[in-house]
Specification:
five-stranded mixed beta barrel; alpha+beta; 153 residues; single chain
């Protein structure tokens, strides 16, 4: 489900790949004056690397065999920031890229506290199939460790 947010509000956005702290597109969040939130996870999802793509794809809902929590970060963004991020993610104008959905997210508030909320999440617009090699890569921290920190120039 997607919706057009009120331009005066900030919306929670769950990031799990190149928009995460230290990754190559994180500078865009800073440029868009996004406010940092906290570590978070999406349950019932899977993270995949599609052959030839240098970024992960979150698939939701996941196939039962490859379901694992996907860990990431929540940032708070404006409607204008979401529009800019839609262009980066190709949502929805580039077929086969990403679409933005509202999903349940668990936030880690510190001191062992967790709470659930809904957040905007970029999910793969296509599901793993026979068109390309899709490799399940587990949680995003594993993807982040494998790719190393990258700072957006």
């Amino acid at each position: 489900m997607t919706y057009a947010p009120d331009p005066m509000d900030d919306f929670p956005l769950f990031v799990y790949g190149t928009l995460m702290t230290g990754q190559r597109n994180h500078g865009l969040l800073q440029h868009l004056n996004a406010r940092p939130g906290c570590p978070a996870r999406v349950d019932g999802a899977s993270l995949y690397q599609r052959e030839g793509e240098p970024y992960p794809r979150l698939v939701y809902p996941a196939r039962r065999l490859h379901t694992a929590p996907v860990f990431g970060e929540v940032w708070y963004v404006t409607a204008a920031a979401l529009a800019a991020l839609d262009r980066l993610e190709g949502a929805p104008q580039v077929p086969g890229m990403f679409r933005r959905r509202i999903l349940p997210v668990t936030l880690y508030a510190g001191h062992g506290l967790e709470y659930k909320t809904d957040a905007q999440v970029y999910v793969s617009a296509v599901r793993p199939g026979k068109d390309a090699l899709w490799t399940p890569i587990g949680v995003s921290w594993a993807w982040r460790a494998a790719t190393g920190p990258r700072i957006h120039a």
